[in-house]
């Protein structure tokens, strides 16, 4: 391709599919069981319409906002996602892209790059943690994140370890040893551009998680850390409050979909809530997050920042979420498709697509600022919304 720019996230996804080995692409798409939730996350945005104005549009539009004390040039934050083997630069490239566009990145505990590298690329880094290991181990990871310069913490608790997919799960080895390399060789050889991007660095994906390393010890493998997570007893609300207190700074609880959980999160002292169903990768049958957003905003929106995560593919989707009360949205798959399509530039392309879509939608609605959007700007069919808990 002589022109690698793309005009929509859908185009980035198609290019990522052509660029990546099948197992890598399938791991990005993911989803669980029937895929009901992952499909609804996207489809629900298509059910919402707009009520535009035709005159007196503002000449300029304000997109800037703040999330957990960090100024953002527009209301989109990169959501934390695990090992980003779609490109050798992984999370560092994503962090640089986000920094170049004036926004923040959430860095997964299961990331392929160390938090120190990512913070150096983008000081607006929120470190994401799961409840895994002992409190001492969790406190160690918090201290490392604090020392690295992470400006906020994201706790993700909505994971049931559902692994079955009706369309089949991709093969992901624990290590890229000779046996697994031979098994994956046909896929990799069928995607020579992706393979060459790694070969020219002199290394293949390590499949380790450096942010889970204990002090003075090597990084565990993805599945080694995953096993520890599975064996850790689930947290209580007292544990959440302990995390908030121990971190002592901006703190987001990600994975909230019920009103009663949102209220308990406020009681635990969180700064922000992300209305999320783990991108459809968790309990299948959970409704799209945009359906549950307004009830949570009504319940706690005056006390904490409420963000939305799940299904965002367009700038108009961002505007719909903001009109229904979200402070900002978090995007996970879209930046990874951009990364696969064109590295850091591809991630910047995705962010530019979203920003441009926000701008044009605000113009059509006659709104001068993202902060002046309201439910009056959105048309929802009967029975669209869900209130859980």
Architecture blueprint of SSEs:
Elements lengths: L8 H11 L2 H8 L6 H12 L1 E2 L14 E3 L2 E3 L3 E3 L11 H11 L4 E3 L7 H7 L3 E5 L5 H14 L3 E5 L21 H12 L2 H8 L22 H10 L5 H11 L3 E6 L2 H10 L3 E4 L13 H12 L4 E5 L5 H9 L4 E4 L1 H33 L12 E2 L10
Parallel strand pairs: 4-11, 5-6, 6-7, 7-8, 8-9, 9-10, 10-11
Antiparallel strand pairs: 1-12, 2-3
Helix pairs in contact: 1-14, 4-5, 4-14, 10-11, 11-12, 13-14
Task: Walk me through this protein's architecture.
- With about 400 residues, this protein is an alpha/beta fold.
- Helix content is about 45%, strand content about 10%.
- It has helices at about 10-20, 20-30, 35-45, 90-100, 115-120, 135-150, 180-190, 190-200, 220-230, 235-245, 260-270, 290-300, 315-325, 335-365; strands at about 50, 65, 70, 75-80, 105, 125-130, 150-155, 250-255, 270-275, 305-310, 330, 380.
- Strands 4-11-10-9-8-7-6-5 form an 8-stranded parallel beta sheet.
- α10 (about 235-245) packs across α11 (about 260-270).
Q: What's this model, at a glance?
A:
With 389 residues, this protein is of the alpha/beta class. The chain is built from 14 helices and 12 strands. Helix content is 43%, strand content 12%.
């Amino acid at each position: 391709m002589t022109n690698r720019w793309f005009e929509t996230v859908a185009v980035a996804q198609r290019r990522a599919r052509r660029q990546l080995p099948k197992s890598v692409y399938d791991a990005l798409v993911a989803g669980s069981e029937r895929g009901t939730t992952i499909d609804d996350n996207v489809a629900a945005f298509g059910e919402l319409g707009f009520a535009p104005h035709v005159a007196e549009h503002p000449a300029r539009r304000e997109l800037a906002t703040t999330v957990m004390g960090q100024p953002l040039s527009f209301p989109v934050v990169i959501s934390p996602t695990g090992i980003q083997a779609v490109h050798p630069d992984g999370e560092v490239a994503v962090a640089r892209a986000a920094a170049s566009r004036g926004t923040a990145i959430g860095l997964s505990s299961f990331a392929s790059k160390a938090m120190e590298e990512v913070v150096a690329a983008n000081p607006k880094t929120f470190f994401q943690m799961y409840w895994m290991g002992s409190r001492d181990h969790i406190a160690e990871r918090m201290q490392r994140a604090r020392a690295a310069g992470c400006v906020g913490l994201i706790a993700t608790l909505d994971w049931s370890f559902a692994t079955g997919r009706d369309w089949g799960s991709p093969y992901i080895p624990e290590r890229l040893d000779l046996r697994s390399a031979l098994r994956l060789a046909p896929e990799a050889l069928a995607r020579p551009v992706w393979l060459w991007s790694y070969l020219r660095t002199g290394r293949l994906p390590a499949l380790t998680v450096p942010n889970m390393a204990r002090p003075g010890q090597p990084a565990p493998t993805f599945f080694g850390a995953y096993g520890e997570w599975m064996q850790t007893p689930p947290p209580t609300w007292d544990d959440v409050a302990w995390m908030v207190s121990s971190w002592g700074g901006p703190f987001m609880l990600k994975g909230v979909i019920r009103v009663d959980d949102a209220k308990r999160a406020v009681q635990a002292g969180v700064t922000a809530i992300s209305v999320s169903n783990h991108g459809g990768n968790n309990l299948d049958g959970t409704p799209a997050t945009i359906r549950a957003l307004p009830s949570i905003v009504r319940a706690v929106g005056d006390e904490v920042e409420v963000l939305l995560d799940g299904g965002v593919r367009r700038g108009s989707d961002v505007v719909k979420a903001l009109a229904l009360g979200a402070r900002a949205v978090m995007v996970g798959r879209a930046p990874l498709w951009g990364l696969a399509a064109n590295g850091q530039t591809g991630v910047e392309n995705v962010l530019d697509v979203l920003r441009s879509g926000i701008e044009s939608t605000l113009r059509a609605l006659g709104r001068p600022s993202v902060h002046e959007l309201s439910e009056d700007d959105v048309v929802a069919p009967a029975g669209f919304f869900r209130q859980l808990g």
